[in-house]
Write the structure tokens for this entry.
Amino acid sequence: MELAERKQKILRAIVESYTQTGEPVGSKTLLSETGIGVSPATIRNDMADLTQNGYLYQPHTSAGRIPTQKACRYYIDNLMTPKAPSARACDYIDRKLSEHADTPENLLRTAAELLSDYTGFAAVTTTPPAKDARVHRLHILPTGRHTAMAVLITTTGMVRTKLFRCNFVVTTEIAEVLQKVLNKALSGVPLCEITKPFMQTVAASFPDLMLLTPQALITVMEMAASAQETELCTAGQSRLLFMPDVDIVTARGILSFLSDTEQTAKLLFSQRSGMRLFIGTDCAHPELLCATVICARYEIGGVSAGAVALFAPLRTDYAAAAGAVAYITKAVGNLLDQMIEL
């Protein structure tokens, strides 16, 4: 249902006022906040129409109005503009993310902590879905006379490292040859295709070299399997237990949901790109009926990868929370892009 412009202004003011204060909003407050040049009676008539159409709720006769979930959904979809963090907050976020951008895992963990600290809610970041990951490149680095380290970097920004032993002295020259051969065979290959039969085919293509280093192939196969597992970094879950608008049953439900990595990842990856705000029944999960979930996908190389999300109460400053999620999501994607190109 499309609302007339004046009713949109009234609805916007009620949602924004209520999410800030938690108090019902009356006609006097609306007149002062909206600047609409109409009488209080006209405002009350519009509020009555919005109430009749399911957008507002009046707790009792003499009270103002409270927005319903339908009103919040309309506000989010049609009226809300995400509010970016202040310049000072952005500088702080950028500095902290850069300080912990040594590995994707540390970056994603720091991003979740920063988002939780900034908003006061529970935050989650994820590694990219396994189905999208391919081999970007491999490094083989000698670490001892008979040991070397394999470093796998995926197209989705994940890095895996693993030591392996050799039956011969590992020189820099041998490591460079092995690295060149493995990159030629594996670059661009989906991780899910790096199976035992596939690696046997690779070995058969370079028999002389692979007879010397069978453990290198096993190591690469193990790293590829590890990199396919979606990982979640969570922060601020305990904050849910101390929010005035969240009772213990709601808090336990959200915590229970977050403890299930598979269903959490499925919800966050249901948004293929951009940002989405789930409120209440939008999620179709009973544990989240009294929650707001704001989820965005960060991009690597212009392609949607992992997710950044916020789990908050239903009464939330949606614009500020969405702005924080959007800013951190973009920053994470930019830093991961830089890591891959190093």
Observations:
- The beta strands are 56-57, 66-67, 122-126, 135-142, 147-154, 159-165, 232-235, 275-279, 291-300, 303-313.
- The mean pLDDT is 88.
